[in-house]
């Protein structure tokens, strides 16, 4: 998608747009794609982004939703949504926050500037009445893709899940089954290499969490699946009962990559830190520093 610049002609630069222009490859923001543009990568450009407190929490006790981002950094989040073709969250975020994942600057932008929502939901716990599906039915956001564990067509164990799948399809969801990895998790790498990934995800995917997905993204083996990490740090303390930004690694999961600093800027009272995962011996695409 294109950067959405709401300023009047000749007005001062918008800080969010200046940051995005500095850290993202040009081909992600230029539409239509010029004929001379190189062939797009085999998988989408992936941004992992989330807001956390000073003590590293993204939610309150029991996953209670917190408003961590101030208005300035929240505006950056909405510009990021405009920039990306698709946006992914885990089912825990859907159940706890019932998000809309729409781009609003400050009002709702047209459907053509909205990212396509994707939910990672191994057990199909997404409510058919959630805002993401309702918004798609109303035509103000794109249809929802739900990625889930592959189901047996005959197993009694999966009978309830097959009913849930039918309910979600009636609500308009597109279901994509994946085989879980050895830890019982849905591998994001399999989604990115799915035969329909280009159609489902476009050329850029924004991952907004929660904690398990953040950990999974950062623990992916080389060459990794994340191209850029953008973390908003709010000047608040949540306490030890809050949900940590990165869930503990499961046995056998890889260690996180080295992070290369790209940029740090203040948005209001929040610090926005941009880093690039680096895997030794792997040459990444990366953006401009």
What does this structure look like?
- With 289 residues, this protein is of the alpha/beta class.
- It has two domains: 47-81 and 206-247 and 254-280, Dihydrofolate Reductase, subunit A; 85-97 and 108-203, Dihydrofolate Reductase, subunit A, CATH 3.40.430.
- Helix content is 24%, strand content 22%.
- The chain is built from eight helices and eleven strands.
- The protein has helices spanning 15-23, 71-83, 91-97, 131-138, 159-170, 188-192, 197-201, 211-219; strands at residues 45-53, 57-59, 86-90, 116-120, 145-149, 174-178, 204-207, 228-234, 243-244, 258-267, 270-278.
- The strands form two sheets. The chain has a nine-stranded mixed sheet, with helices on both faces.
- β10 and β11 (270-278) form a beta hairpin.
- α1 (15-23) packs across α2.
- Pathway: Cofactor biosynthesis; riboflavin biosynthesis.
- Belongs to the HTP reductase family.
- This is 2,5-diamino-6-ribosylamino-4(3H)-pyrimidinone 5'-phosphate reductase.
- Catalyzes an early step in riboflavin biosynthesis, the NADPH-dependent reduction of the ribose side chain of 2,5-diamino-6-ribosylamino-4(3H)-pyrimidinone 5'-phosphate, yielding 2,5-diamino-6-ribitylamino-4(3H)-pyrimidinone 5'-phosphate.
- One of its GO terms (biological process) is riboflavin biosynthetic process.
